[in-house]
């Protein structure tokens, strides 16, 4: 996801096993050369492929945006990872690509649920919404254009 025109995902790393059955979909995806096409379409992200024999496959993403908490400024970049093990069905290549796209499109920040209403000191330009407006019940407003 872009924040002020800058994509936040800076690095994607694909980890897989050369022999394990759970990595079959990732190996097929790498052999199909679709990763190269995917990377060419997204030049803002660095992609690495690493072998971890004896381990399940996953994709790890690192983001530009730093953690919001000011308590620990020594923390590194935000990191998310998603497992891609056992994607053995007919859509396995697409499932691996969807995982890459999902991580690429994230902003890196955690989702925050707003439990309280948000109040602002700056009033809305549009005005305050009220359910009694019922603009759809008003007669249509006709405009007349005059050439001068």
Report on the structure:
One of its GO terms (cellular component) is mitochondrial large ribosomal subunit. Residues 18-107 form the Ribosomal protein/NADH dehydrogenase domain. This is Mitochondrial ribosomal protein L51 / S25 / CI-B8 domain containing protein. Keywords: Mitochondrion, Ribonucleoprotein, Ribosomal protein. InterPro entries: Ribosomal_mL43 (IPR039927), Ribosomal_mL43/mS25/NADH_DH (IPR007741). The chain has 148 residues and is an alpha+beta fold. It has one domain (2-105): 3-Layer(aba) Sandwich (Glutaredoxin). 20% of the residues lie in helices and 20% in strands. The protein is built from 3 helices and 6 strands, in the order βββααβββα. The chain has helices at 24-31, 34-41, 92-105; strands at residues 2-3, 6-7, 9-16, 46-51, 58-63, 78-83. The strands form 2 sheets. Strands 4-3-5-6 form a 4-stranded mixed β-sheet, covered by helices on one side. The chain has a two-stranded antiparallel ribbon with strand order 1-2. The chain is elongated. 16% of the residues are buried. The model has no long low-confidence stretch (mean pLDDT 83).
């Amino acid at each position: 996801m872009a924040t002020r025109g800058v994509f936040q995902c800076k690095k994607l790393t694909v980890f897989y096993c050369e022999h394990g059955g759970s990595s079959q979909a990732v190996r097929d995806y790498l052999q199909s050369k679709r990763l190269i096409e995917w990377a060419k379409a997204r030049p803002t992200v660095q992609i690495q492929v690493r072998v971890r024999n004896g381990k399940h496959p996953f994709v790890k993403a690192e983001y530009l945006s730093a953690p919001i908490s000011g308590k620990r400024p020594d923390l590194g970049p935000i990191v998310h990872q998603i497992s891609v093990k056992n994607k053995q069905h007919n859509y396995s290549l697409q499932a691996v690509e969807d995982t890459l796209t999902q991580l690429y499109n994230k902003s890196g920040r955690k989702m925050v649920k707003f439990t309280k209403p948000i109040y602002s000191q700056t009033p809305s330009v549009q005005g305050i919404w009220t359910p009694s407006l019922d603009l759809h019940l008003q007669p249509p407003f006709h405009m007349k254009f005059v050439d001068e």
